[in-house]
Amino acid sequence: MALLDEAEGLLARIGPILDHVESVTSGAATVVTRVDRVVDHAEAQVGRVTPLLDGLEPPLTKLQPMLEQLADTTHPDEVAALVQMIDHLPELTGRLERDILPIMGTLGSVAPDLHDLLAVSRELNDMLAKIPGFARIKRRINQEQGEDHTDAPVKD
Questions:
Q1: Is residue 44 part of a domain?
Q2: pLDDT > 70: percent of the chain
Q3: Distance CA 8, CA 106 (A)
Q4: Within a domain: residue 50?
Q5: Domains of the chain: total
Q6: How far apart are CA 41 and CA 53, in angstroms?
Q7: Tell me, what's the pLDDT at 147?
Q8: What is the domain range of residue 23?
Q9: Tell me, what DSSP letter sits at residue 152?
């Protein structure tokens, strides 16, 4: 009978322990379900990122030395200036297309005109040099402007 009493005592102690084990098992099942969802989500993200990394690895490997040098030599003020320049790019592009490029298109026709203007200017200078007394006037003007290659003061 003592054995039967001990068995009943053990059964009385085992009941709460089994209840606790069932509670822990239920909680563990909930955690396992959540972990399964996290793993599924992580696998989906790995599936998305892997092709991207595979494609970017070769160019990033080539760029790594340049990026390190850029990081070592770039001052924050330079980065701020670059950002400011990028902010102005739309306006600069518009002005370039609207104002500068049309002028550049006409530069080919300006050179002959400038050559002709220079030739006329030389002819006019030669004609003026033949006027009696003009050499003296030219010398006086050069002296007043300080262009006579002397130490004469320039007049304002």
A1: yes
A2: 94
A3: 112
A4: yes
A5: 1
A6: 18
A7: 59
A8: 1-56
A9: P
Structure tokens that stand for 153 in this block: 């003061």
Type and span of the H or E element at 5: helix 2-73
Going by the DSSP 8-state scheme, the letter that residue 147 receives in this structure is: -
32 lies in some domain: yes
- pLDDT for 130: 83
Enter the tokens of residue 122: 């030389």
Q: Tell whether pTM > 0.85.
A: no
Radius of gyration of the chain (CA): 46
Distance CA 115, CA 26 (A): 98
Tokens matching residue 49:
């990122």
CA distance linking residue 142 with residue 156, whole number of Å = 13
How open is the CA angle 84-90-91, to the nearest 5 degrees? 85
For tokens 């053990």, the residue is 10
Q: Token pair for residue 58?
A: 């070769």
Within a domain: residue 22? Answer: yes
CA distances from 83 to 19, 24, 79 (A): 66, 58, 6
